Amino acid sequence: MATAIAQRRDTRVKEYTYLWEGIDRNNRNVRGEIKAASETVVTSNLRRQGIRIKKLKRQTFRGGGRVNEKDITFFTRQLATMLKAGVPLLQAFEIVARGHRNPRFARLMMDIKGRVEAGSSLSQAFREHPAQFDALYCNLVNAGETAGMLDGILERLATYKEKILALKSKIKSAMFYPISVVTVAIIVVWIIMVWVIPAFKQVFKSFGADLPAPTLIVMAISDFFVSYWWL
Question: Is the pLDDT at 101 greater than 90, yes or no?
Fold first, then answer.
């Protein structure tokens, strides 16, 4: 049985996403996207629908940075706003994907859209991407779907994530000053130990007098810095 399943997977035709523009039977300009194995299949499907193709292009995604928390927060706010405005869920995903500059994020949106189109709930589609959507996010979306108030839940989620981002930004700003002070202090101490103290050491030696213990300790530390600065 496992062998049969593997064979079915191997024989599955790989599909690509194609963007198309054309003219329908009423001479109106229309556009959209379709998944198919080749341009020939796309052309055949659109002709059966009475659409004359003007432009057909395979959608490609290359590179792109990783999807971060800021991207997910912005997406949540966008999705909540569009659902409240009455935009259909699948169309909302398409709008978000096309409006984002990061190809990796666009791929994520189109994957979720495809899973929802295939019959999965939105929360189930989110659970397939745990790196971007944590358990709390998915559970709240599931609760919103069950209660029929998905737009309200997404709006609260967006507000929550925006507050978290603002708090993290404040913490980073608060940490910047002490880290800068410590860094400058370390650099100053290093300069004193490597350059200033050795210069005074020669002066003290020329006096020929016995030096106090604290001065000798400082000189020993300076010698260590000079000998092992690369550590």
Answer: no
